[in-house]
Amino acid sequence: MSSTSRSQSRVSFASLTPNNLGTVRKLNSVLFPIKYSEKFYQDVLLPEVEDFCKLVYFNDVPVGTICCRFETAGETTKLYLMTMGVLAPYRSRGLGSKSLEHVITAALTHTKPKIDSIYLHVQVSNAAAKGFYERHGFKEVAVHENYYKKLVPHDAWILERSLADHTEENK
Amino acid sequence: MPPSGIPAKRALPPKESSLFKEVLNLYESKQLKKGLKTADLILKKYPEHGETLCMKGLILTHMGRREEGLELVKKGVRLDLTSHICWHVFGLIQKGEKNYEEALKSYTQALRFDKENLNILRDAAHLQTQLRHFDGLVETRHTLLRLRPNLRQNWIGLAVAYHLNGNLTETKKVVEHYERTLKNVPDYDVEHSEVLLYHVRVLEELGELAEALNLLDVNAKSRAIIDRTAIMEYRARILSKMKNVEDAEHTWQALIQQNPDNYDYFKGYFSNQGLDLFQVTEETRDKALQILREFSTQLPRAAAPRRLALGVATGDEFKQLAEAYLISALEKGIPSLFTDIKALYKEPSKQESIQGIVESHRERLSSPSPPSPSSESEPPTTYLWTLYFLAQHYSFIGQHINSLALLETALKHTPTLPELFMFRARVLKRLGDPFGAARCMDEARLLDLQDRFLNTKVGKYRLRAGMEEEAQEVLGLFTKKDASSPGADLEDMQSLLFLTEDASCHHRNGNLGMALKRYHSVQKVFNEVEDDQYDFHGYSLRRFTINVYLEMIPWADRLRSHVAYVQSAIAASQIYVRLHDDPSIATKSSADNLTDAEKKAKKKAKKAAQKVQEEAKKGHPQTSATEDKGLEPGPAKDDDPDGSKLLKSTDPLDRAWKFLSPLAILELDDVEAWIAIYDVAVRRKKFLQAVRALNRVHSLDPENSELHVRLVHLRHIVLSLPQPPPEPIGPVLAEALDKLLSPEVSLETYNSQYLQQHSTSARSILASAKVLHLLGATPAEEIDNTIFNIFNPEVQVDIEAALDVVAFLRSIRSARVGEFRAACDKKFELSTVFKAPAELISLRRKAIATIEDVEKANGEKTEVVT
Hints:
The structure holds 2 protein chains of 2 kinds. Chain A is 24% helix and 33% strand. Chain A has helices spanning 21-31, 38-43, 95-109, 127-135; strands at residues 11-15, 34-36, 54-58, 61-73, 76-86, 117-123, 139-144, 156-162. In chain A, strand 3 (54-58) and strand 4 (61-73) form a beta hairpin. Chain A is globular, with a radius of gyration of 16 Å. Chain B is 71% helix and 0% strand. Chain B is built from 47 helices and 1 strand. The longest helix of chain B is centred in the C-terminal third of the chain and has 28 residues, at 596-623. Chain A binds chain B through residues 1-2, 4-7, 9, 17-20, 22-23, 25-30, 33-37, 39-40, 58-63, 87, 89-90, 92-94, 148-151, and chain B through 331, 333, 372-376, 378-384, 413-417, 446-450, 851, 854-858, 861-866. Chain B: TPR repeats lie at residues 84-117. Chain B: Keywords: Repeat, TPR repeat.
């Protein structure tokens, strides 16, 4: 894979802090057609999600983010992938895969609480994204109608990967 | 001391005499309260006993009752003028106040009455070193050595004294004598190693190279000298001096192998071969390149030989080497690449080549990428750093618009790299938009709030935009929280960056009092640094760190050639000169010129100062736990929080001279400094000093526009003197001035000739207008007309010069200031510095970035997640 690359390209992750939140805002503003609330930015700093909210660095330049939150209902805890994105010039270099795997690995070893599955929304027009998540073991479980208020199309797929049964894990 | 020699008034009966000894002991062991009580017991019976009074005064000073203590000491000295104790105490107090000159006098008195007192001798030696009285120092060190020849440091003390006094032959003798007295030196003794290295150095400086080398080799072999790097450096240097080219080459080579990024080693290697690495000629170029190429092969990871080769090579050879160097650095993503390379721009052909190389690299990278972009292709960061480099390149050569466009492209590519915002800020600053610059720097800061460098930059850029309060706010994010204000903490930390920038911010804002206050703080910092060397006069000899110590002394001698001091001294003297010329500024500056923000800041400063004083009061009872407060006065109360007292000082010229006199002594090659020296000297009626300063400017830059103004000024002053200065000053002055400015031409003609000769230079136009104003015969409209020639198309004018013109027009109350400003505003399209005052207020408000700015990147958002 990247072993033959002629320049050493380094990918690394950094935890979110109040100090680098400006970089996250900047990335979100160019990556997504969505304005995130202040609550979003408060939540990604919570200590319990530290392993699941990261800045992605390429050769020491921050070029992407991945942010998740916990959703607990009764006995089950799910990890909801809120945002994941990489700046356009840095795509197709495996950064997205590395970021997602980073979060999945962290989720698999997480104990308090134990995480049952990871899920996310993808706009139904975005087949490429769907394909990407399916390659990482996600499956379409439902369609959320009118998920987006203003974006067209309004519907979103719900993609989920179960973590409870480790045999399902395909790497 | 034999009792018979004691004067009657000093003699005490046995009981009191033993009490007095107790006082001395109690003082030595810092039992101050007990000491005070005991002294009082003696004074009850013998209130006129000088030595007891002095001791009591000394103890009181230590307890923080300084004024009372000083009174007693003075009284004590007066009552017993022949007591070494009294003079010693007086000297100690003066030394504590850093009054070294007077302290040394007291010590000299003390030594007259007790010639062999070791403590006094040692202190006197330190004072003599601090004051650079090297003759006296040699004598004192001699006495010390005679009294205690078994103390090693006394030998070194004498050797160093001779060295400082320029007598290396004696130094050598003393060191040799000292080495002969040594017995049983332990292995790996650092102090002995230092002495031996010092010995080698002395021999080297004496030109006894063979002896130096022999001493070095013998002691390196026996491991008596343990600093391996120093051994090699000394060796290489001495061998080169001995013209032992071959051995020297090996040693230089070994040094380079050890640290391939030290330019000095390369320099040494080349000069050993008769080549000057930084002044290559056509004959030596090929050979030099050849050597550097070999080093590059030998040391594949070292940057130095490659970078040095760029300085040496020319033409195609340069292109080839530069391409490899630049491309590799861009791929690695080295942010400082441009800073590293820009020294080469002195040669236009190299500048051109570099532009070509990086431009074609950009073209290659920006062309449509290969069908499947993958990790095999060039990483996008290379393209990013290429854009960044080019932006710096174009701004450096004055193509700022081009630079901004490149930054725009880069920010679209990667909007998260703070360097891009920082550099955009810099370009805006260069274009005369300090507000946009401050805001842009702030945008960089918001990306990474924990970056102290970015934080400092924002503070500095806000100060440049005149936003004093906002600057302190942002700097306060990194200062001590319990300080009375961020500024106060930065002053305590001796931050020259803050003090100088804050001063010039106040200066530009017209708040001259605060500007002076900050410039005085800069002066204080340098005084403190100078005082700080005092402790080393003792320490370095005690610990045998002689070699660095001998480098520190000349460094301290040139301390005030530091750019922060030079600029502060010049600026402060300019304010004092203005105050001297027009004392009414003092009252105007403090009240009328203040904007609302400044008034608020002033109130804040007052409050902060109050807080400090309250805390100081509160602090008193707590600190009594340690009753000894030392001999140095504590931090002085700030009784002039806004500098208004400085503005009203009655001796502005003397104060200005205090700032400038170190510059005159250092003989700097600095036109501005000499002009400032002239301005103060001529007003103090020191005409020879004045004309000498102009002579210095003339030798540095004969066509200098400010020199033109000063020459006319001096002639004008001399002509208007009621009678010429007395011999010998008068004739010397006349002769010197005539040489600079022919007496046969009228000043008016001289001025118009100057203008004709320099009609395309904005500064020269300004200078000739200044002269017209100075001579006083020209109507105001004509002066204005002269100034407006600046807008002739063939005139070269930059923003700095235009701002100086605005200041000049304001100072002569020209009716056309507004017109000139508006014309500049138009001429310098992206600038904001020429906007009307009302507009500046709203510009300030926009100069602070917010979260919204960070997020606004992509226009309106359709979806809002809550």
